Amino acid sequence: HATLHNRTPTGTFKVNGTGNVKIGKSGMHVSSESIPPTQIITRTLGGVGVSHDASLYIDCDRNIRSIQNNDSDDMNSSSPQNPSQSPEDDNMLFIQEADNTTECARRSGIIYDELKINKKSKLGSGATANVLRVTHRDKPYALKIIPYGYREVKPTVIIQEVKCLHDSMDCPHIIELLEAYHREGSVRLLLEYMDCGSLEDVYKVERIPENVLSQVTCQILKGLQYLHEKKQIIHRDIKPSNVLLNHRGQVKISDFGMSRKLEQSQAFHTFQGSFMYMSPERLKGESHSFSSDLWSLALSIIECCIGRFPYDVEKFNVWNYTKFISEEGLNLRENEISDDLRHFVNCCLHVSPDKRLSARELLQTPFIMKHNPDECTSKVKSFLKDVYIAKKKAIREERQRRRQEQQENGN
Protein backbone atom coordinates (compact mmCIF):
# COMPACT_ATOMS: atom_id res chain seq x y z
CA HIS A 1 0.00 0.00 0.00
CA ALA A 2 1.10 3.55 -0.65
CA THR A 3 1.81 5.97 2.14
CA LEU A 4 -1.42 7.83 2.90
CA HIS A 5 -2.38 11.42 3.55
CA ASN A 6 0.79 13.23 2.48
CA ARG A 7 -0.24 16.51 0.95
CA THR A 8 1.19 17.59 -2.39
CA PRO A 9 2.58 21.11 -2.99
CA THR A 10 -0.68 22.05 -4.71
CA GLY A 11 -2.78 20.77 -1.85
CA THR A 12 -4.31 17.90 -3.82
CA PHE A 13 -4.20 14.14 -3.49
CA LYS A 14 -2.34 11.78 -5.82
CA VAL A 15 -2.14 8.04 -6.18
CA ASN A 16 0.71 5.93 -4.80
CA GLY A 17 3.21 8.21 -3.24
CA THR A 18 2.10 11.66 -2.22
CA GLY A 19 -1.24 11.66 -0.54
CA ASN A 20 -4.10 9.27 -1.24
CA VAL A 21 -7.77 8.96 -0.48
CA LYS A 22 -8.31 5.60 1.21
CA ILE A 23 -11.37 3.35 0.93
CA GLY A 24 -11.62 0.30 3.12
CA LYS A 25 -14.44 -1.86 4.41
CA SER A 26 -15.51 0.90 6.77
CA GLY A 27 -15.66 3.53 4.07
CA MET A 28 -13.63 6.34 2.61
CA HIS A 29 -11.74 8.99 4.53
CA VAL A 30 -9.04 11.63 4.47
CA SER A 31 -6.57 12.37 7.21
CA SER A 32 -7.65 15.44 9.17
CA GLU A 33 -4.00 16.48 9.32
CA SER A 34 -3.93 17.54 5.66
CA ILE A 35 -7.16 18.97 4.28
CA PRO A 36 -7.03 19.92 0.58
CA PRO A 37 -8.52 23.18 -0.70
CA THR A 38 -11.56 21.32 -2.02
CA GLN A 39 -12.94 18.06 -0.70
CA ILE A 40 -15.70 16.12 -2.38
CA ILE A 41 -18.46 15.26 0.06
CA THR A 42 -20.27 12.89 -2.28
CA ARG A 43 -20.18 11.75 -5.87
CA THR A 44 -23.65 11.56 -7.28
CA LEU A 45 -23.10 8.55 -9.54
CA GLY A 46 -20.66 6.43 -7.60
CA GLY A 47 -22.18 7.12 -4.21
CA VAL A 48 -18.75 7.42 -2.58
CA GLY A 49 -17.72 10.32 -0.39
CA VAL A 50 -15.05 11.64 1.94
CA SER A 51 -15.21 12.74 5.52
CA HIS A 52 -14.43 16.27 6.63
CA ASP A 53 -12.62 16.42 9.97
CA ALA A 54 -14.27 13.06 10.76
CA SER A 55 -17.70 14.75 10.83
CA LEU A 56 -19.27 13.82 7.51
CA TYR A 57 -18.80 10.22 6.49
CA ILE A 58 -20.12 8.00 3.69
CA ASP A 59 -19.65 4.28 4.11
CA CYS A 60 -19.30 1.66 1.40
CA ASP A 61 -23.05 1.02 1.42
CA ARG A 62 -23.58 4.69 0.50
CA ASN A 63 -24.99 5.52 3.94
CA ILE A 64 -24.15 9.13 4.68
CA ARG A 65 -23.50 9.53 8.38
CA SER A 66 -22.58 12.04 11.03
CA ILE A 67 -19.80 10.91 13.35
CA GLN A 68 -19.83 13.77 15.83
CA ASN A 69 -23.60 14.29 15.98
CA ASN A 70 -26.18 11.77 17.11
CA ASP A 71 -29.55 13.50 16.74
CA SER A 72 -32.35 11.04 17.38
CA ASP A 73 -34.56 12.64 14.73
CA ASP A 74 -32.16 12.08 11.85
CA MET A 75 -32.35 8.97 9.75
CA ASN A 76 -29.25 6.88 9.16
CA SER A 77 -27.23 9.09 11.49
CA SER A 78 -25.49 6.48 13.58
CA SER A 79 -21.98 7.19 14.76
CA PRO A 80 -19.47 4.65 13.45
CA GLN A 81 -15.97 4.40 14.75
CA ASN A 82 -13.56 7.01 13.51
CA PRO A 83 -12.75 5.80 9.98
CA SER A 84 -9.12 6.89 10.30
CA GLN A 85 -8.72 4.02 12.75
CA SER A 86 -9.99 1.37 10.33
CA PRO A 87 -7.47 -1.41 9.66
CA GLU A 88 -5.93 -1.81 6.24
CA ASP A 89 -6.88 -4.96 4.38
CA ASP A 90 -6.64 -6.61 0.99
CA ASN A 91 -9.80 -4.84 -0.17
CA MET A 92 -8.23 -1.40 0.29
CA LEU A 93 -8.74 0.81 -2.75
CA PHE A 94 -6.96 3.97 -3.83
CA ILE A 95 -8.49 6.58 -6.12
CA GLN A 96 -6.88 9.62 -7.62
CA GLU A 97 -8.01 13.07 -6.49
CA ALA A 98 -5.22 14.98 -8.22
CA ASP A 99 -7.58 17.46 -9.88
CA ASN A 100 -9.78 18.13 -6.85
CA THR A 101 -12.72 16.32 -8.34
CA THR A 102 -14.40 12.94 -8.46
CA GLU A 103 -14.69 10.43 -11.25
CA CYS A 104 -18.28 11.62 -11.71
CA ALA A 105 -17.25 15.24 -12.11
CA ARG A 106 -14.40 14.33 -14.43
CA ARG A 107 -16.92 12.78 -16.81
CA SER A 108 -19.06 15.93 -16.76
CA GLY A 109 -16.06 18.24 -16.83
CA ILE A 110 -17.18 20.13 -13.72
CA ILE A 111 -14.21 20.95 -11.50
CA TYR A 112 -14.80 23.31 -8.60
CA ASP A 113 -11.79 25.51 -9.28
CA GLU A 114 -13.02 26.05 -12.84
CA LEU A 115 -16.39 27.42 -11.74
CA LYS A 116 -16.80 31.14 -12.34
CA ILE A 117 -18.27 32.52 -9.14
CA ASN A 118 -19.58 36.05 -8.81
CA LYS A 119 -20.60 36.65 -5.21
CA LYS A 120 -22.88 39.48 -6.35
CA SER A 121 -24.94 37.06 -8.47
CA LYS A 122 -27.13 35.95 -5.58
CA LEU A 123 -30.19 33.86 -6.41
CA GLY A 124 -31.47 33.61 -2.86
CA SER A 125 -30.56 33.44 0.79
CA GLY A 126 -31.92 31.97 3.98
CA ALA A 127 -31.08 31.55 7.62
CA THR A 128 -28.47 28.87 6.97
CA ALA A 129 -27.46 29.12 3.29
CA ASN A 130 -26.88 31.38 0.31
CA VAL A 131 -27.40 30.44 -3.34
CA LEU A 132 -25.26 31.98 -6.08
CA ARG A 133 -25.50 31.79 -9.85
CA VAL A 134 -22.24 30.37 -11.19
CA THR A 135 -21.07 29.26 -14.61
CA HIS A 136 -18.88 26.54 -16.03
CA ARG A 137 -17.94 26.82 -19.69
CA ASP A 138 -20.71 29.40 -20.11
CA LYS A 139 -23.39 27.07 -18.74
CA PRO A 140 -25.19 28.40 -15.63
CA TYR A 141 -25.60 26.46 -12.40
CA ALA A 142 -26.76 27.23 -8.88
CA LEU A 143 -24.24 26.92 -6.05
CA LYS A 144 -25.78 26.51 -2.61
CA ILE A 145 -23.31 27.51 0.11
CA ILE A 146 -24.00 26.12 3.58
CA PRO A 147 -21.62 27.45 6.28
CA TYR A 148 -20.32 24.54 8.28
CA GLY A 149 -19.91 24.52 12.05
CA TYR A 150 -22.54 27.10 13.06
CA ARG A 151 -24.99 26.01 15.73
CA GLU A 152 -27.86 26.49 13.29
CA VAL A 153 -26.24 24.18 10.72
CA LYS A 154 -26.07 20.64 12.06
CA PRO A 155 -23.98 18.15 10.11
CA THR A 156 -27.01 15.88 9.93
CA VAL A 157 -29.02 18.58 8.13
CA ILE A 158 -26.35 18.80 5.44
CA ILE A 159 -26.20 15.03 5.29
CA GLN A 160 -29.96 14.79 4.81
CA GLU A 161 -30.04 17.28 1.97
CA VAL A 162 -27.20 15.61 0.09
CA LYS A 163 -28.60 12.14 0.65
CA CYS A 164 -32.15 13.00 -0.42
CA LEU A 165 -30.96 14.78 -3.56
CA HIS A 166 -28.57 11.93 -4.33
CA ASP A 167 -31.33 9.35 -3.93
CA SER A 168 -33.75 11.32 -6.14
CA MET A 169 -31.60 11.75 -9.23
CA ASP A 170 -33.96 9.83 -11.49
CA CYS A 171 -37.00 12.03 -10.76
CA PRO A 172 -37.56 14.91 -13.24
CA HIS A 173 -39.51 16.89 -10.63
CA ILE A 174 -36.69 17.07 -8.06
CA ILE A 175 -33.85 19.58 -8.45
CA GLU A 176 -30.73 17.84 -9.75
CA LEU A 177 -27.58 17.66 -7.64
CA LEU A 178 -24.45 17.56 -9.80
CA GLU A 179 -21.76 17.64 -7.13
CA ALA A 180 -21.07 18.50 -3.50
CA TYR A 181 -17.85 20.05 -2.19
CA HIS A 182 -16.29 21.25 1.02
CA ARG A 183 -14.42 24.52 0.74
CA GLU A 184 -13.62 27.54 2.91
CA GLY A 185 -15.56 26.27 5.91
CA SER A 186 -18.74 25.47 4.00
CA VAL A 187 -20.43 22.67 2.12
CA ARG A 188 -21.23 23.74 -1.43
CA LEU A 189 -23.88 21.98 -3.50
CA LEU A 190 -23.73 22.40 -7.27
CA LEU A 191 -27.31 22.25 -8.55
CA GLU A 192 -29.04 22.67 -11.87
CA TYR A 193 -30.03 26.25 -12.62
CA MET A 194 -33.76 27.06 -12.85
CA ASP A 195 -33.89 30.33 -14.77
CA CYS A 196 -37.40 31.46 -13.79
CA GLY A 197 -36.79 31.36 -10.04
CA SER A 198 -39.32 30.16 -7.51
CA LEU A 199 -43.11 30.09 -7.38
CA GLU A 200 -42.84 32.94 -4.89
CA ASP A 201 -40.88 35.03 -7.41
CA VAL A 202 -43.49 34.33 -10.08
CA TYR A 203 -46.70 35.04 -8.17
CA LYS A 204 -45.30 38.27 -6.72
CA VAL A 205 -44.96 39.55 -10.29
CA GLU A 206 -48.27 38.11 -11.50
CA ARG A 207 -50.81 35.87 -9.81
CA ILE A 208 -50.86 32.45 -11.42
CA PRO A 209 -54.15 31.56 -13.17
CA GLU A 210 -55.76 28.26 -12.25
CA ASN A 211 -55.22 26.53 -15.59
CA VAL A 212 -51.48 27.19 -15.26
CA LEU A 213 -51.48 26.45 -11.54
CA SER A 214 -53.07 23.08 -12.22
CA GLN A 215 -50.08 22.04 -14.34
CA VAL A 216 -47.66 23.44 -11.75
CA THR A 217 -49.44 21.46 -9.04
CA CYS A 218 -49.46 18.34 -11.21
CA GLN A 219 -45.66 18.41 -11.43
CA ILE A 220 -45.25 19.05 -7.69
CA LEU A 221 -47.57 16.14 -6.92
CA LYS A 222 -45.56 13.84 -9.17
CA GLY A 223 -42.44 14.87 -7.28
CA LEU A 224 -44.13 14.26 -3.92
CA GLN A 225 -45.54 10.94 -5.09
CA TYR A 226 -42.01 9.87 -6.00
CA LEU A 227 -40.61 11.00 -2.65
CA HIS A 228 -43.40 9.46 -0.58
CA GLU A 229 -43.94 6.17 -2.39
CA LYS A 230 -40.55 5.28 -3.85
CA LYS A 231 -38.19 6.87 -1.34
CA GLN A 232 -40.32 7.19 1.82
CA ILE A 233 -39.09 10.76 2.19
CA ILE A 234 -41.09 13.56 3.84
CA HIS A 235 -39.97 16.94 2.51
CA ARG A 236 -41.29 18.91 5.53
CA ASP A 237 -40.75 22.36 4.03
CA ILE A 238 -43.01 22.66 0.97
CA LYS A 239 -43.68 26.33 0.23
CA PRO A 240 -43.59 28.63 -2.83
CA SER A 241 -39.96 29.63 -2.34
CA ASN A 242 -38.89 25.95 -2.41
CA VAL A 243 -40.51 25.16 -5.76
CA LEU A 244 -38.45 26.24 -8.79
CA LEU A 245 -39.33 26.73 -12.47
CA ASN A 246 -37.51 27.13 -15.77
CA HIS A 247 -38.46 28.60 -19.15
CA ARG A 248 -39.33 25.15 -20.50
CA GLY A 249 -42.23 24.97 -18.05
CA GLN A 250 -40.57 22.42 -15.79
CA VAL A 251 -41.34 22.60 -12.08
CA LYS A 252 -39.02 21.07 -9.46
CA ILE A 253 -38.98 20.67 -5.70
CA SER A 254 -35.86 22.00 -3.97
CA ASP A 255 -34.32 22.58 -0.52
CA PHE A 256 -34.22 19.24 1.26
CA GLY A 257 -32.56 20.47 4.44
CA MET A 258 -35.64 19.66 6.56
CA SER A 259 -36.46 16.37 4.83
CA ARG A 260 -36.46 13.01 6.58
CA LYS A 261 -36.91 9.41 5.53
CA LEU A 262 -39.76 7.52 7.14
CA GLU A 263 -38.68 4.07 8.24
CA GLN A 264 -41.60 1.60 8.41
CA SER A 265 -43.79 2.60 11.40
CA GLN A 266 -41.52 5.49 12.38
CA ALA A 267 -42.96 8.99 12.66
CA PHE A 268 -41.41 12.36 13.47
CA HIS A 269 -42.25 14.83 16.20
CA THR A 270 -39.83 17.68 15.67
CA PHE A 271 -40.75 21.32 15.09
CA GLN A 272 -38.72 22.34 12.04
CA GLY A 273 -39.57 24.33 8.94
CA SER A 274 -41.74 27.38 8.17
CA PHE A 275 -44.50 27.35 10.78
CA MET A 276 -47.13 29.11 8.64
CA TYR A 277 -47.13 26.19 6.18
CA MET A 278 -47.08 23.49 8.86
CA SER A 279 -49.95 21.09 9.41
CA PRO A 280 -51.72 21.11 12.80
CA GLU A 281 -50.07 17.89 13.93
CA ARG A 282 -46.62 19.30 13.23
CA LEU A 283 -47.39 22.55 15.04
CA LYS A 284 -48.55 20.57 18.06
CA GLY A 285 -45.38 18.50 18.07
CA GLU A 286 -47.34 15.34 17.32
CA SER A 287 -46.21 12.57 15.01
CA HIS A 288 -46.45 13.43 11.32
CA SER A 289 -45.99 11.65 8.05
CA PHE A 290 -46.37 12.19 4.29
CA SER A 291 -49.76 13.90 4.56
CA SER A 292 -48.14 16.89 6.24
CA ASP A 293 -46.53 17.75 2.89
CA LEU A 294 -49.97 17.86 1.25
CA TRP A 295 -51.23 20.37 3.83
CA SER A 296 -48.27 22.61 3.00
CA LEU A 297 -48.87 22.16 -0.72
CA ALA A 298 -52.50 23.28 -0.48
CA LEU A 299 -51.60 26.52 1.32
CA SER A 300 -48.82 27.17 -1.20
CA ILE A 301 -51.15 26.70 -4.18
CA ILE A 302 -53.80 29.01 -2.72
CA GLU A 303 -51.13 31.63 -2.06
CA CYS A 304 -49.97 31.54 -5.69
CA CYS A 305 -53.56 31.77 -6.93
CA ILE A 306 -54.84 34.69 -4.84
CA GLY A 307 -51.50 36.50 -4.51
CA ARG A 308 -51.29 36.37 -0.72
CA PHE A 309 -51.06 33.85 2.08
CA PRO A 310 -54.63 32.79 2.94
CA TYR A 311 -54.24 33.52 6.66
CA ASP A 312 -53.24 36.81 8.25
CA VAL A 313 -50.29 35.30 10.09
CA GLU A 314 -49.02 38.64 11.39
CA LYS A 315 -51.73 38.71 14.04
CA PHE A 316 -50.87 35.20 15.23
CA ASN A 317 -48.08 33.66 17.21
CA VAL A 318 -47.38 29.99 16.61
CA TRP A 319 -49.64 28.85 19.46
CA ASN A 320 -52.82 30.74 18.61
CA TYR A 321 -52.17 30.08 14.91
CA THR A 322 -52.20 26.37 15.69
CA LYS A 323 -55.53 26.72 17.48
CA PHE A 324 -56.98 28.85 14.68
CA ILE A 325 -56.18 26.53 11.76
CA SER A 326 -57.29 23.51 13.79
CA GLU A 327 -60.72 25.01 14.48
CA GLU A 328 -61.39 27.32 11.53
CA GLY A 329 -61.71 26.35 7.88
CA LEU A 330 -60.11 28.21 5.02
CA ASN A 331 -62.00 31.48 4.76
CA LEU A 332 -61.90 32.69 1.16
CA ARG A 333 -64.23 35.05 -0.67
CA GLU A 334 -67.01 33.31 -2.60
CA ASN A 335 -65.66 33.72 -6.12
CA GLU A 336 -61.98 33.92 -5.23
CA ILE A 337 -61.23 30.39 -6.43
CA SER A 338 -63.08 27.82 -8.56
CA ASP A 339 -65.06 24.91 -7.14
CA ASP A 340 -62.47 22.48 -8.51
CA LEU A 341 -59.61 24.22 -6.71
CA ARG A 342 -61.69 24.55 -3.55
CA HIS A 343 -62.35 20.81 -3.64
CA PHE A 344 -58.64 20.09 -4.16
CA VAL A 345 -57.64 22.27 -1.23
CA ASN A 346 -60.28 20.79 1.04
CA CYS A 347 -58.90 17.31 0.27
CA CYS A 348 -55.54 18.47 1.65
CA LEU A 349 -56.60 20.59 4.63
CA HIS A 350 -58.37 18.04 6.81
CA VAL A 351 -57.27 18.53 10.41
CA SER A 352 -57.09 14.75 10.67
CA PRO A 353 -54.07 13.56 8.64
CA ASP A 354 -55.76 10.24 7.86
CA LYS A 355 -58.52 12.04 5.93
CA ARG A 356 -56.17 13.84 3.54
CA LEU A 357 -55.75 12.39 0.08
CA SER A 358 -52.34 11.12 -0.98
CA ALA A 359 -50.32 12.66 -3.80
CA ARG A 360 -51.38 9.78 -6.07
CA GLU A 361 -55.06 10.36 -5.25
CA LEU A 362 -54.81 14.13 -5.69
CA LEU A 363 -53.51 13.62 -9.23
CA GLN A 364 -56.97 12.20 -10.05
CA THR A 365 -58.97 15.18 -8.77
CA PRO A 366 -60.90 17.41 -11.24
CA PHE A 367 -58.58 20.37 -10.63
CA ILE A 368 -55.66 18.37 -12.03
CA MET A 369 -57.44 16.22 -14.62
CA LYS A 370 -59.25 19.16 -16.21
CA HIS A 371 -56.10 20.87 -17.47
CA ASN A 372 -54.30 18.23 -19.54
CA PRO A 373 -52.12 16.49 -16.94
CA ASP A 374 -50.39 14.37 -19.61
CA GLU A 375 -48.66 17.48 -20.93
CA CYS A 376 -48.11 19.36 -17.70
CA THR A 377 -45.61 21.93 -18.98
CA SER A 378 -47.31 23.60 -21.98
CA LYS A 379 -49.45 26.15 -20.12
CA VAL A 380 -46.67 26.81 -17.61
CA LYS A 381 -44.19 27.47 -20.41
CA SER A 382 -46.56 29.89 -22.19
CA PHE A 383 -47.41 31.77 -19.00
CA LEU A 384 -43.78 32.19 -18.02
CA LYS A 385 -42.79 33.43 -21.47
CA ASP A 386 -45.76 35.63 -22.35
CA VAL A 387 -46.66 36.99 -18.92
CA TYR A 388 -44.04 36.52 -16.20
CA ILE A 389 -40.82 37.08 -18.16
CA ALA A 390 -42.39 39.88 -20.25
CA LYS A 391 -43.79 41.69 -17.20
CA LYS A 392 -40.58 41.23 -15.24
CA LYS A 393 -38.66 42.77 -18.14
CA ALA A 394 -41.08 45.72 -18.26
CA ILE A 395 -40.69 46.27 -14.51
CA ARG A 396 -36.91 46.20 -14.82
CA GLU A 397 -36.95 48.68 -17.71
CA GLU A 398 -39.27 51.01 -15.80
CA ARG A 399 -36.95 50.97 -12.80
CA GLN A 400 -33.99 51.76 -15.03
CA ARG A 401 -35.91 54.63 -16.62
CA ARG A 402 -36.81 56.13 -13.23
CA ARG A 403 -33.25 55.73 -12.02
CA GLN A 404 -31.96 57.52 -15.10
CA GLU A 405 -34.49 60.36 -14.61
CA GLN A 406 -33.39 60.77 -11.00
CA GLN A 407 -29.76 60.96 -12.06
CA GLU A 408 -30.56 63.54 -14.73
CA ASN A 409 -32.65 65.64 -12.32
CA GLY A 410 -29.86 65.43 -9.77
CA ASN A 411 -27.41 66.83 -12.28
From TrEMBL:
Residues 67-90 are annotated as: Disordered. InterPro entries: Kinase-like_dom_sf, Prot_kinase_dom, Protein_kinase_ATP_BS, Ser/Thr_kinase_AS. ATP binds at residue 144. Keywords: ATP-binding, Kinase, Nucleotide-binding, Serine/threonine-protein kinase, Transferase. It is an enzyme of class 2 (transferase). Residues 75-86 have a biased composition (Low complexity). It catalyses: L-threonyl-[protein] + ATP = O-phospho-L-threonyl-[protein] + ADP + H(+); L-seryl-[protein] + ATP = O-phospho-L-seryl-[protein] + ADP + H(+); L-tyrosyl-[protein] + ATP = O-phospho-L-tyrosyl-[protein] + ADP + H(+). It comes from the Eukaryota. SUPFAM superfamilies: Protein kinase-like (PK-like). Its EC number is 2.7.12.2. Residues 117-368 form the Protein kinase domain. One of its GO terms (molecular function) is protein serine/threonine kinase activity. Belongs to the protein kinase superfamily. STE Ser/Thr protein kinase family. MAP kinase kinase subfamily. This is mitogen-activated protein kinase kinase. It comes from Percolomonas cosmopolitus.
